[in-house]
Amino acid sequence: xxxxxxxxxxxxxxxxxxxxxxxxxxxxxxxxxxxxxxxxxxxxxxxxxxxxxxxxxxxxxxxxxxxxxxxxxxxxxxxxx
Length: 81
Known about the structure:
This protein is mostly beta strands. It has one domain: Roll (SH3 type barrels). Helices cover 6% and strands 44% of the residues. A five-stranded antiparallel beta sheet has the order 4-3-2-1-7. A two-stranded antiparallel sheet has the order 5-6. β2 and β3 (36-42) form a beta hairpin.
C-alpha cells in the first residue's frame, strides 16, 4: 500500500481561535482512508474531559480559516514564544 504524502503540522503549542490552548503531539493516518490527522491534547481541564485525553482532527480542518465576527482567522495558530 502506498502511503500518500501529506502536510505535516509541527508539534508544539497552538491557540484555538476561541482562545484555549492545545499541544500538537504529532500526525497520524486514518487506517481506512489514509486521511492525515493531527493528534493533539488540550492544555486545560474541564469536568467533561478527563486530563490527558487525546484528540484527532483532519489536518485540513486543523489548518483551515474560519469566519468570525472580526473576519477570517486560522482555526489553530501556533503560539510563538
